[in-house]
Amino acid sequence: TKVDPVEAAERFGADPLRLYVIKEIAFGGDSDFSWERYDERYNVDLANNLGNLVSRVSAIAHQFRDGRLVSTGSPGKLLDVAVEVFASYRRAMDTFALHEGAAAAFRLIDATNEFITETAPWKLAKDPSASDRLTQVLFDAAEAIRVAAVLLTPIMPASSAEILRRLDDFALPAVGV
After folding, report:
1. How far is Cα 22 from Cα 102, in angstroms, rounded to an integer?
2. Neighbours of 76 (CB within 10 A)
3. What is the DSSP code string of 107-155?
4. Are 104 and 151 in contact, with CB atoms under 8 Å apart?
5. Radius of gyration of the chain (CA)
6. How far is CA 144 from the centre of its chain?
7. Lowest CB count within 10 Å: 12, 20, 85, 96, which one?
8. pTM over 0.90
9. Model confidence pLDDT, tens digit, residues 106-149
10. Could you count the other beta carbons within 10 Å of the beta carbon of residue 32?
11. Can you tell me the distance from the alpha carbon of 126 to that of 43, in angstroms, rounded to the nearest whole number?
């Protein structure tokens, strides 16, 4: 089946098409394109996974911390995940295994979604004694999103730039990953 790339890009944009092609087709390989799979990947990877994560962390940070996030303690487990993901990403990209690089970045996104679910910042916000913990949870999540967006920049330049622009509101210092 022939697929018009312009038509595919018009459906959700160029970045989602790039992500789909990179995640679904190993560099130099062949694959079948399916509109159903394209729609599914867009909804799962971008709308539900990455998009909702960015929106949730941003909304909670603005609601409970006026959008100002600073580290209040030691980085949590997300830093360890980010370090491992960065190493995997680098190995993959150095060997042109673009699909593995994208998968590595999405491992960090998945870990961040799990972290938000586990730490429940909306519950921490109700407990005045958990104020520093709430700030650190939001800081760690925002920093993990920033790292993921940087890793995804070659694949989704416009979307990554928008995510980084939204995170700039938090004035996050860079973590040495």
Report:
1. 7
2. 17
3. HHHHHHHHHHHHH-HHHHTT-GGGHHHHHHHHHHHHHHHHHHHHHHTTT
4. yes
5. 17
6. 7
7. 96
8. no
9. 999 999 999 999 999 999 999 999 999 999 999 999 999 999 99
10. 9
11. 32
**d(Cα 77, Cα 108) in Å, to the nearest integer?**
11
35-51 pLDDT tens trace:
888 888 888 888 889 99
What distance in Å separates the CA atoms of residue 33 and residue 17, rounded to the nearest whole number? 11
The token duo for 21 is: 């092609």
Cα dihedral 74→70→66→135 (10° resolution): 10
pLDDT in tens, 32-91: 777 888 888 888 888 889 999 999 999 999 999 988 888 888 888 899 999 999 999 999
- Return all residues near 19 (Cβ < 8 A) that are at least 6 apart: 41, 45, 46, 102, 152, 155, 156
Taking CB atoms within 8 Å and a gap of at least 24, the contacts of 121-129 are 121/60, 121/64, 122/60, 125/60, 125/63, 125/64
Neighbours of 78 (CB within 10 A): 23
